Amino acid sequence: MIRRTLRLCALLCLLLGSLALLPMAASAARGWSGDGPQTAYQEGTVPGTVPTATPTHKPKPTKPPKPKPTATAVPHPTSAPAAPSSDRVAGYATVGGDKLEKVIGDRLSPVIYGFTASDRLYWSPDDGLRWRYATTRPAFEEFIMSSAEPAVLYSGAGIDCTVADQTPASFVRSDFRGTRWEELPRAVDLVPYLVDPADPYRLFAADCELPFFSGDGGETWIARPDSRATSPWFTFRVKDMVAASLIESGAGADAAPGWHILYAGGALDSGNSVIAYSEDEGATWTTMTPTDGSGLIGLRVLEADPYVAGRLWAADAQGVWYTEDFGTNWLLISEGLERVVSVRGRASLGDITDLAYAPATGQLFLASTWGLYVLAPGETVWQPISDQLFSGGTVNSLMITESNPSVLWVNARDGAYRYRIR
């Protein structure tokens, strides 16, 4: 009986144990197989805790390559030339935005004067770097100045020597930079040409008859042809005068400029012209061209080398004549100027208006009604300067100063320009 009871207890315990293992088996079965959600435990983690995520290296997204533009050859325009370099081309000069119409100066002075579009006169002490107001509506717009004292100015238009019975033309002086003028009654009909670079009150002028000299600022005058019958000024009317004023500058630092050699050119009504020079301030004159004026025709303007005696250029209707020996030998340089000079009797289409020599480079510049030209040292063919805003138009006058020898002032029809000399 007891033995039967023990067997039943053993069977009962075995049955109860089997029933307790069934949920664990079912749970294990769910963890390793089946279609439901499963939790993957990493090695070393404790079930029931949050697993430590193992970093995975995600590949960087690949950027699509940017399309490269295909180079397409663009043809250069043929209708307009390429723009010149900026350091050579510039618009007209201005004073505080006010366009400069014209500049006036003297080769031996950094002081220059400028007329603006607003009808004002300015002056600059440093070749146009800074400008100072002088006056509004100046009474005279053509004058020459003294390099010894730039405040002293002279103006006189003269008269047309081919017309009889004209109204006398006044001659005036300003000691105040053009703000006030004084009329000089003994200088009626005179045109001023030269002021002594050492004395602002010594000057040369001429009328339809003779050249005259004044030593007191135009108050009194003395005729300066010599007494010889061969003096050209008893026959020819003075058209221009220039001076070689720096010939003795190499003698020393204190050597002052002066009227070392004077040159003058004159013409007859027929156009025949003559050139003469003086080494004694006009007391005597020596001709450099045929005395009958048969070589030159219609003299326009003279230009002298300020440093070299006897070196002179003279522009006439045929071109530019050049001498370096006081006229013993002359060379006519006209090639390249076909538009502005007479060629084999054909009338010219334009005219030469001015010459300017640049000692620093040896270049000679020519102003004309067809623009600006340049003659290089040793050359005999003129070249037009065609890359500027004033190119091809009328250029009235030119100016170079020894204090700023790399700049050529160009007074064109539409304004004043600075041209960089190279």
Silhouette: globular
Radius of gyration: 47 Å
Provide the succession of SSEs: HEEEEEEEEEEEEEEEEEEEEEEEEEEEEE
> How far do the termini sit from each other?
142 Å
| Mean pLDDT level | 81
Please provide the count of β strands.
Answer: 29
Low-confidence stretches: 1-6, 9-89
Spatial strand order of the main sheet: 1-2-3-4-5
Bin the helical content: under 10%
Strand count, sense and barrel status of the largest sheet are:
5 strands, antiparallel
Count of runs of 4 or more consecutive helical residues: 1
Q: Name the structural class.
A: mainly beta
Q: Which band does the percent of strand residues land in? A: 25-35%
What does this structure look like?
It is a single chain. The protein has one helix at about 1-30, and strands at about 95, 100-105, 110-115, 120-125, 130-135, 145, 155, 170-175, 180-185, 190-195, 205, 210-215, 220-225, 235-245, 260-265, 270-280, 285, 295, 300-305, 310-315, 320-325, 330-335, 350-360, 365-370, 370-375, 385, 395-400, 405-410, 415-420. It has about 425 residues and is mostly beta strands. The protein is globular, with a radius of gyration of 47 Å. The model is unreliable at about 1-5 and about 10-90 (pLDDT under 50). A hairpin with a 4-residue loop joins strand 11 and strand 12.
Core attributes:
mainly beta, 5-stranded antiparallel β-sheet, 1 helix, 7% helix, 422 residues, globular
Write the layout of secondary structure elements.
Elements: H1 2-32, E1 94-95, E2 98-105, E3 112-116, E4 120-124, E5 132-136, E6 144-145, E7 153-156, E8 171-174, E9 182-183, E10 191-195, E11 203-206, E12 211-214, E13 222-223, E14 237-244, E15 261-267, E16 272-278, E17 286-287, E18 296-297, E19 301-304, E20 312-316, E21 319-323, E22 331-333, E23 352-358, E24 363-368, E25 371-375, E26 383-384, E27 395-401, E28 404-412, E29 415-420
Antiparallel strand pairs: 1-2, 2-3, 3-4, 4-5, 6-7, 7-8, 8-9, 10-11, 11-12, 12-13, 14-15, 15-16, 16-17, 16-18, 19-20, 20-21, 21-22, 23-24, 24-25, 25-26, 27-28, 28-29
